[in-house]
């Protein structure tokens, strides 16, 4: 009595009828473009592509792949997306992709200018600090972006010379400690010959040069005063003239030069006076007169020259009259001439 009911309950249920899914018609992916619209989009995409190619060439010149990092990767991906769309004639997608790539490229160009400026500043700061290694790195970074950058080229040359410049400055300092000022100045000049912008070498050279000038000035003044005391006026004048070259505004050197000139002038006057007196003693009156006149032409206040000129002119006149009478003795037949004679 159990089996028939059990068998009935275990019969499989009939499958339910499944309604087939309704197949919907495919919608178009985008608006259908007319031939004219498609041509306009293609022309726009080609213009953007031409601009993009110019930008890419500039970025390649700047070595952007080496420093652009993830921005450069995004730039390339966006450019390729535009190329793929262009090749698939999807100009409506190519144009926006190229435009986006151009914007990213402008960011990279702006970033390159920032990197160059920062690296130049860092390189110059490293030079001032005497760090040649860091300076080399910074200027090489700039030249990796812009190989024609004049400031980076100059900075790189300075960075390469910096170790030698520092060695020469150190050598100059050692000469200074030893009291060898001329050798110190030469070392500093050599350093500036390698790097004329090295401020420390310029400042220490100026200080050493001032010490050398002071030393030379004092030496020349001492020699001039010694020559002046010995009445060696020519040598004294030369020493004071050289001292004025070293220190043009020195009143002390100017006074010494004036004293030497006056002493030399007095020597010359004394010599001329002695010669004029010798001419008088030999009764060479005309020659004595000429010497006295020359002296008075240079200094009209010379009393001895005034007296000598008057004396010589009187004697020259007397001599001329005597010579005339000797040459013309018949003139003495006149009583008046005879009395005068």
Give the SSE layout:
Elements: H1 3-9, H2 35-61, H3 64-67, H4 69-87, H5 91-129, H6 132-145, H7 150-177, H8 181-194, H9 199-229, H10 233-246, H11 251-281, H12 285-298, H13 303-327, H14 335-340
Structural summary, described in words:
The protein is an all-alpha fold. 80% of the residues lie in helices and 0% in strands. The protein contains 14 helices and no strands. The longest helix is centred in the N-terminal third of the chain and has 39 residues, at 91-129.
- Main sheet characteristics: none
Strand-pairing-aware structural class: mainly alpha
- Average per-residue pLDDT, rounded, comes to 82
Low-confidence blocks of residues: none
Indicate the overall shape: elongated
What's the count of strands?
Answer: 0
Count every helix, treating DSSP H or I runs of 4 or more residues as helices: 14
Task: Summarize the amount of helix as a percent range.
Answer: over 70%
H/E element order: HHHHHHHHHHHHHH
Cα Rg: 54 Å
Amino-to-carboxy terminus distance: 211 Å
Strand percent estimate: under 5%
Notable characteristics:
mainly alpha, 0% strand
Outline:
By secondary structure, this protein is mainly alpha-helical.
């Amino acid at each position: 009595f159990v089996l028939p009911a059990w068998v009935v309950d275990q019969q499989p249920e009939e499958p339910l009828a499944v309604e087939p899914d309704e197949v919907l018609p495919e919608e178009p992916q985008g608006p259908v473009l007319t031939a004219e619209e498609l041509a306009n989009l293609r022309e726009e995409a080609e213009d953007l592509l031409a601009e993009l190619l110019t930008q890419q060439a500039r970025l390649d010149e700047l070595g952007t792949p080496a420093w652009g990092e993830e921005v450069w990767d995004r730039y390339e991906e966006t450019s390729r997306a535009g190329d793929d769309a262009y090749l698939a004639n999807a100009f409506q997608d190519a144009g926006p992709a190229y435009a986006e790539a151009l914007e990213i490229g402008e960011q990279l160009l702006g970033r390159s200018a920032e990197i160059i400026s920062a690296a130049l500043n860092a390189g110059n700061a490293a030079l001032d600090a005497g760090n040649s290694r860091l300076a080399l790195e910074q200027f090489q970074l700039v030249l990796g972006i812009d190989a024609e950058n004049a400031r980076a080229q100059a900075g790189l040359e300075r960075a390469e010379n910096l170790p030698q410049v520092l060695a020469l400055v150190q050598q100059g300092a050692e000469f200074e400690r030893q009291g060898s000022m001329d050798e110190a100045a030469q070392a500093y000049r050599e350093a500036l010959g390698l790097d004329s912008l090295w401020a420390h070498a310029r400042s220490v050279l100026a200080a050493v040069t001032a010490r050398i000038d002071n030393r030379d000035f004092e030496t020349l003044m001492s020699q001039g005063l010694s020559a002046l005391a010995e009445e060696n006026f020519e040598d004294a004048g030369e020493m004071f003239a050289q001292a004025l070259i070293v220190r043009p505004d020195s009143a002390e050197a100017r006074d010494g030069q004036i004293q030497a000139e006056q002493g030399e002038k007095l020597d010359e006057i004394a010599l001329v006076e002695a010669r004029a007196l010798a001419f008088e003693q030999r009764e060479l009156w005309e020659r004595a007169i000429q010497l006295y006149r020359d002296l008075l032409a240079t200094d009209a206040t010379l009393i001895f020259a005034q007296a000598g000129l008057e004396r010589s002119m009187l004697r020259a006149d007397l001599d001329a009259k005597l010579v005339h009478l000797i040459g013309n003795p018949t003139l003495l037949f006149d009583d008046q001439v005879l009395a005068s004679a």
